[in-house]
Amino acid sequence: MKIIMLGAPGAGKGTQAKMLSDKFSIPHISTGDIFRANIKEGTELGKKAKAYMDAGGLVPDELTVDLVIDRIGKDDCVNGYILDGFPRTLNQAHKLSEALAESGDIDCAVNVDVPDEAIIERMSGRRVCPSCGASYHIVNIPTKVEGICDRCGAEVIQRADDLPETVKKRLSVYHEQTQPLIDYYKGLGREADVDGTQSMQAVFEAIVACLEG
Ligand code: AP5
Ligand code: MG
């Protein structure tokens, strides 16, 4: 099963992608996580991506498209994958469709729908574990011990791009460049809308119902 997670920054794409990856035993491929890992390791890609990410803009397609096309060609992707944060521009979507021309396009683009006001509230409260990648929210999904990751014991942090001004910029980039993908996948008859304001478990069940329905 080849799945795309669509939705605004902070809509819960990463949270749901992790749950779906466990359920269907297919890899979760997040371009944001790949870029952040490269920044942490100090690679050339990381150095280039960092400035765009910190400003709330998009990393250029030249640095993004081949990375993903290579990744989905790896052995662990033979039974499918979940793309989280890619494609994010119409050009990226067209490039992905071209790459999948022989094997068949994606099965479903899941649009996790959350209004902007709720997004801002979620992002300002998000805390992430820099060590194992777990994601929390200071009110909705708090760590058991304040500031400490439940899973691995590391200190949780706020993402650099979750500062209020950057969140506003990311939302406007989303509306301008990524939202049009909803219509692109609707046109292919492969889009499903899910109400992302429900609890994590309810969102998960709604997505699974779409995928299995
Ligand atoms: P990326 O890492 O993809 O960030 P994003 O799309 O902005 O999305 P987030 O990861 O912030 O949110 P999410 O939807 O995964 O939500 P989450 O599950 O964490 O990209 C970062 C940057 O990299 C981009 O800005 C860009 O610069 C660059 N980039 C990446 N891909 C690119 C591409 N293809 N092209 C160009 N540039 C690219 O949840 C958010 C919070 O809400 C958490 O605290 C969570 O615990 C909580 N939460 C989740 N679900 C619920 C729920 N149901 N109820 C209550 N709280 C919830
Ligand atoms: Mg994410």
What summary fits the major beta sheet?
Answer: 5 strands, parallel
Q: Enter the CATH topology name.
A: Rossmann fold
**Secondary-structure element sequence?**
EHEHHHEHEHEEHHEH
| Computed CA radius of gyration, to the nearest angstrom | 16 Å
Q: Give the averaged pLDDT, no decimals.
A: 95
Which architecture does the CATH hierarchy give at level 2? Answer: 3-Layer(aba) Sandwich
Number of strands: 7
Structural class: alpha/beta
Strand content: 5-15%
Specify the CATH homologous superfamily. Answer: P-loop containing nucleotide triphosphate hydrolases
Distinct ligand kinds? BIS(adenosine)-5'-pentaphosphate, magnesium ion
Binned, the helix content reads 40-55%
Global shape: globular
Discrete helix count: 9
Structure, briefly:
The protein has helices at residues 13-24, 31-41, 44-54, 61-71, 90-99, 116-125, 164-178, 180-187, 200-212; strands at residues 2-6, 28-30, 81-84, 108-113, 126-128, 135-137, 191-195. It is α/β, with parallel strands linked by helices.
Textual characterization of the structure:
There is one protein chain. By secondary structure, the protein is α/β, with parallel strands linked by helices. The chain has one domain (2-114, 171-212): Rossmann fold. Helix content is 47%, strand content 14%. It contains 9 helices and 7 strands; from the N terminus they run βαβαααβαβαββααβα. The chain has helices spanning 13-24, 31-41, 44-54, 61-71, 90-99, 116-125, 164-178, 180-187, 200-212; strands at 2-6, 28-30, 81-84, 108-113, 126-128, 135-137, 191-195. The chain has a 5-stranded parallel sheet with strand order 2-3-1-4-7, with helices on both faces. A two-stranded antiparallel sheet has the order 5-6. Helix 1 (13-24) crosses helix 9 (200-212), helix 4 packs parallel to helix 5 and helix 6 packs across helix 7. The longest helix is centred in the last third of the chain and has 15 residues, at 164-178. It is globular and about 50 Å long. The two termini are 13 Å apart. 32% of the residues are buried. Bound molecules: BIS(adenosine)-5'-pentaphosphate and magnesium ion (MG). Magnesium ion (MG) binds next to helix 1.
